[in-house]
Amino acid sequence: MSGEQMGRKAYEEFKEKLKHLKGVKRKELSKAVGEARDHGDLKENSAYHEAKKDQGLNEAKIRDLEARLENMQVVEDGDINKDQVRLGLTVKLKELKSGDEVEYKVVSELEADIFENKISATSPLGDALLGHKLNEVVEFEAPLGTMKYKILKIS
């Protein structure tokens, strides 16, 4: 995890998320545990056990996020050179076999969300793209076989 990078804006957003988990969310869950405890016998109190489970999950998220942010290398957003694919940049690609065009933002593992077209720099495609320039073809192994993409735009 020590080599993971993230843009400044995303880093600040995750710091805010951590602040929310440690403040607002922690208080909400503590209150839920207290209210559930008041409902009687804890052995058969499913609301209490569920609230304790949620509280434990929140604490695990806090620990994970703290550890990852502590070791994160922050890349200043304005310092990103757009002559080649780098963390924080958006890349428009053409899949050579089908001709389909897709656009992805290359991000840290922590930010990755395929539903928002954000791919991790450590994913097979993200790793293959890093360092390549406009109009270059990248190739990588995917579960469906070898994939080839041409870089159409870097922004």
TrEMBL record:
<dbReference type="Pfam" id="PF01272">
    <property type="entry name" value="GreA_GreB"/>
</dbReference>
<feature type="domain" description="Transcription elongation factor GreA/GreB C-terminal">
    <location>
        <begin position="82"/>
        <end position="155"/>
    </location>
</feature>
<dbReference type="GO" id="GO:0003677">
    <property type="term" value="F:DNA binding"/>
</dbReference>
<dbReference type="InterPro" id="IPR001437">
    <property type="entry name" value="Tscrpt_elong_fac_GreA/B_C"/>
</dbReference>
<dbReference type="GO" id="GO:0070063">
    <property type="term" value="F:RNA polymerase binding"/>
</dbReference>
<feature type="domain" description="Transcription elongation factor GreA/GreB N-terminal">
    <location>
        <begin position="6"/>
        <end position="74"/>
    </location>
</feature>
<dbReference type="InterPro" id="IPR028624">
    <property type="entry name" value="Tscrpt_elong_fac_GreA/B"/>
</dbReference>
<keyword id="KW-0805">Transcription regulation</keyword>
<comment type="function">
    <text>Necessary for efficient RNA polymerase transcription elongation past template-encoded arresting sites. The arresting sites in DNA have the property of trapping a certain fraction of elongating RNA polymerases that pass through, resulting in locked ternary complexes. Cleavage of the nascent transcript by cleavage factors such as GreA or GreB allows the resumption of elongation from the new 3'terminus. GreA releases sequences of 2 to 3 nucleotides.</text>
</comment>
<dbReference type="InterPro" id="IPR018151">
    <property type="entry name" value="TF_GreA/GreB_CS"/>
</dbReference>
<dbReference type="InterPro" id="IPR022691">
    <property type="entry name" value="Tscrpt_elong_fac_GreA/B_N"/>
</dbReference>
<dbReference type="InterPro" id="IPR036953">
    <property type="entry name" value="GreA/GreB_C_sf"/>
</dbReference>
<comment type="similarity">
    <text>Belongs to the GreA/GreB family.</text>
</comment>
<dbReference type="InterPro" id="IPR006359">
    <property type="entry name" value="Tscrpt_elong_fac_GreA"/>
</dbReference>
<dbReference type="InterPro" id="IPR023459">
    <property type="entry name" value="Tscrpt_elong_fac_GreA/B_fam"/>
</dbReference>
<keyword id="KW-0804">Transcription</keyword>
<feature type="region of interest" description="Disordered">
    <location>
        <begin position="29"/>
        <end position="55"/>
    </location>
</feature>
<keyword id="KW-0238">DNA-binding</keyword>
<dbReference type="GO" id="GO:0032784">
    <property type="term" value="P:regulation of DNA-templated transcription elongation"/>
</dbReference>
<dbReference type="InterPro" id="IPR036805">
    <property type="entry name" value="Tscrpt_elong_fac_GreA/B_N_sf"/>
</dbReference>
<dbReference type="Pfam" id="PF03449">
    <property type="entry name" value="GreA_GreB_N"/>
</dbReference>
<dbReference type="GO" id="GO:0006354">
    <property type="term" value="P:DNA-templated transcription elongation"/>
</dbReference>
<protein>
    <recommendedName>
        <fullName>Transcription elongation factor GreA</fullName>
    </recommendedName>
</protein>
